Amino acid sequence: MTPAVVATDGARVNVAGRAVLDEVTMTVRAAEVVALLGPNGSGKSTLVRALMGLLPLASGTVSLFGTPVDRFRQWSRVGYVPQRVTAASGVPATVREVVISGRLSLSPWWRPLGRVDRIAVDAALETVGLGERAGESVARLSGGQQQRVLMARALAGEPELLVLDEPMAGVDLPSQDAFAQTLVGLVGAGTTVLLVAHELGPFEPFVRRAVVLRAGRIVYDGVPPPASGHHAHPDHDHVHPHAPYESEAGWLTR
Amino acid sequence: MMELLSYPFMQRALVAAVLVGLTAPSVGIYLVQRRMALMGDGIGHVALTGVAVGLLTGTSPVYTAVVVAALGAVAIELIRERGRTSGDVALALLFYGGIAGGVLLVGLSDSGSTGSLTAYLFGQLTSVSGSDLAVIAVLAVVVLLVTVGLQPRLFAVCQDEEYARAAGLRVRALNILLAVVAAVTVTVALRVVGVLLVSALMVVPVAAAQQLARGFRATFALALTLGVVFCSSGVVVSYYADTASGATIVVVAIGGFLLATLLATLLGRVRGHRGLVDSPQPDDLALDR
After folding, report:
1. What whole-number distance in Å separates Cα of residue B193 and Cα of residue B188?
2. Ramachandran region of residue B173, left (φ > 0), alpha (ψ -120 to 50) or beta?
3. Which residues of B touch A54 (CB under 8 A)?
4. Is A214 on the interface with B (CB under 8 A)?
5. Looking at this predicted complex, what is its ipTM?
6. Which of A46, B104, B123, B197 is 20 to 30 Å from A148 at the Cα level?
7. A104 near B CB under 8 A
8. For B97-147, how does the pLDDT look when each residue is reduced to its tens digit (9 = 90+)?
9. Residue A209: which H helix or E strand, with range?
C-alpha cells in the first residue's frame, strides 16, 4: 500500500461553538485522485481548509505526509488552489507575478528568486495553457482564465499533493476542458489530487474515488457511479428534491 | 530655480520631500493592494499622541512618534487579523483616541498651546533641521530595504493571505513587519505633510500609477517615481506661490492622478478597440452550449 498523503482521524471543526465538521476519518494515499462531493454547506471547504492548517481542530487529528498539520513545515509539497471569485486584488498584477508566489515556499526569505524559479513558472503557465498571457494583467482575464492562473500558482511549486477547492465554480467551458486536461497530465505523472466539487462533471473520466459529505459527516466513500440521463447534462443544476439515499445514479452530486 | 536652491533650508526641504516621495508609496502600495488604503490615516492619528508625549517629556517628538505609531499599527494589524465586524468600531476608537490624546497631552505640556500641534497636523517642511534630515534618511533606507527586499513575499501576503498561509509563509510576522514599516513611514512623512495628509502620499501616487501600469512591479516603480515628482514639484510650487508645502504637495499629487486617469482613458480607447478583436471572452461563449 502506498503511504498516506492526507490522513484525518475523528476530525471536528467548530464554528461559533457549533460543529460544522465532525467525526471525519479518511485517508488519501499517494497517486490517488479523490473527489470531495456534497451539497452547499456540507463542510467540503471547511474540511479542505482544516487540511491546509487554516482552521483549528476542536478534536481529532489531521496529518499531511505523516506529520500532524500544526507541526507540518514542508508546504512546498502541497499545492493549494483556494476558492476565489478572482485572482486580482487592489493593485494590478501580471499573470506571471501571481504565479511566482507559488515558488516562495521553496526558498528562504533572504534568497531572491532565480532562473530555476522562472523556468518552473513558465512550465506551470504552459501547463494551464496561459504561456502567451504571462505579461497581461490578471484583472483583464475571464473568470475561467483567472482560475487557471490560481492553478498555475499551485503547480509552480511542483507539488506532490494538489488540493483544489471548487476549481470549476463559475468557469467557462473552454477553461473547464483545459483544466481537466491539465489534471489528466498531472495524474499521469503521479500527483495526488484531492478536489472539492459540486458535481463531478469534467472530472469524471479520471476520478476513481468519491467521498461524500453531508451536514459535516462522511456519508459515502467509494467508487463514483457514472452520471447518466439528465444528470449528465452540463446544464443540469440539481434543483429538484431527491430522497436522501435513493439509488438513482447521480445522487452523489447533490 | 537657482535662487531657491541657494537656501540651505530649501535644500533640506527638497531632500526630505524626495525621501518621503520614495518611501510613502513603497509602503502604501501594499496597503492599497489589500484594500486598506486608509490605514495610513489611522496610524497618523495615533502618531499624534506620540508627538504629544515627546513635547510633554522634552524628548524629540520624532522618536516618541515612531514608538507610539508602531504600537498603534501593530494593534490595528492584530484587530484586522481577527476579521470581526466589531474590529471596525475598535479601529475607530483607536483613531479618535489618538487625536484626542495628542491634543490633550500637548495642552498639559509647558510649551502649552495647541498651536505647536499645527506643525504636526499639517507639516512644516521648511523647519527640517540637519539632524532631522539624518534621521529621515536612515528611516527611509530601512523602509525601502523592507519594501523592495521582501517584495515577493509582501506581495503574496497582500494578494491572497489565506494562500500565503497555506504556502507556509510567515504571514503574521510579515504583516506585523509591514505595520511597523508603515508606522515608520508615517512618522517620516509627518514633518513633510502632517498627520492629516500623510495617507495621501501613501495612496495617491499608487492610485495614479495603477491607472497606467499592468503589473505590480511596474506599478511599484511608477508610484515611487510619481511620488518623487509630486513631492519635489509641490515644494517648488509652494515656494513660489507662497502656500503651505504639505497641502500644495497633495494638491499637485491629486492633479497628477487626474492627469494619469485621463491618459489611461485615452490609451484604453486605443488598446480596448484592438482588444475586442483579438480576445473574445470565453465566458460568453459558454452560454451558447
Report:
1. 10
2. alpha
3. 162, 165-166
4. no
5. 0.85
6. A46
7. yes
8. 998 998 888 888 766 555 677 788 888 888 888 888 998 899 999 999 999
9. strand A209-214
Q: What is the pTM of this model?
A: 0.87
Site of grid cell 478534536: A59
Helix (H, G, I), strand (E, B) or coil at B166: helix
AA identity, residue A165: D
B27: in domain: yes
Q: Which residues of A touch B39 (CB under 8 A)?
A: none
Does B219 touch chain A if contact means CB atoms closer than 8 Å?
A: yes
B63/A contact by beta carbon, under 8 A: no
B156 at the A interface (CB within 8 A)? yes
Q: Do B216 and A75 touch (CB under 8 A)?
A: no
Pairing of strands A18-29, A33-37: unpaired
**Residue A175 touches chain B, beta carbons under 8 Å:** yes
Q: In CATH, what number is assigned to the domain containing residue B7?
A: 1.10.3470.10
**Can you give the pLDDT at residue A3?**
85
Q: Which residue has the cell 508625549?
A: B53
A11 contacts chain B (CB < 8 A): no
DSSP for B60-71, please give it.
Answer: -HHHHHHHHHHH
* pLDDT above 70 for A239: no
Report CB contact under 8 Å: A90, B213.
no
CB nearest B152 (choices: A89, A113, A172): A113
Q: Cβ contacts (< 8 Å) between A98 and chain B: which residues?
A: 159
When divided into structural domains, chain B yields a total of: 1
Q: Does residue B8 fall inside a structural domain?
A: yes
Q: From the list B168, B219, B289, which residue is nearest A91 (CB)?
A: B219
Does the residue B273 lie in any domain?
no
Between residues B274 and B219, the one the model is more confident about: B219
- Of the partner residues B34, B162, B169, the one whose CB lies closest to the CB of residue A104: B169
Provide the residue range defining the domain that includes B115. 2-195
Asked whether the beta carbons of residue A90 and residue B283 sit closer than 8 angstroms, the reply is: no
Residue B129, all three cell numbers: 533641521
pLDDT for the residue A227: 59
Chosen from A86, A91, A132 to mutate, greatest number of chain B CBs within 10 A: A91
Query: Could you tell me which of B51, B87, B92, B57 has the C-alpha nearest to residue B69?
Result: B51
Least confident segment among A60-64, A244-248, B209-213: A244-248
Distance from CA of B29 to the nearest CA of A (A): 7
Q: For position A5, what pLDDT does the model report? A: 95
CA distances from A197 to A36, B94, B179, B282 (A): 6, 43, 38, 21
Helical pair B216-241 and B245-278, crossing angle rounded to 10 deg: 140
CA A192, A198, A200, A202 torsion-angle sign: negative
- Give domain status of residue B117, yes or no: yes
- Name which of A25, A48, A50, A24 is nearest A36 in CA terms: A48
